Amino acid sequence: MSVRFHVPGPLLAYSGGERYLAVEAASVRAALDALEKGYPAVHRCICDETGAIRRHVNLFVNRSHLRNLSGLDTKLSPGDEIAIIPAVSGG
What we know:
alpha+beta, Ubiquitin-like (UB roll), 5-stranded mixed sheet, 20% helix
């Protein structure tokens, strides 16, 4: 089943300028695995070396934050979108 990642502006250099990256996956974990195979530089921006999502990155499935769902085991349906939202901080 095809789902897609929405790539934010700061990561476009790692996705070859592509705003959306389609992968075949039934869960968020599987989608991240597929992303690692096809776009390893984007994956490194999202996940650390253990495969955990980096602290400064938020993932949303459609409009719901991953932490309010089933985490990496969140099931996906065809057409779902995973938005990559880097945290913004400053003073």
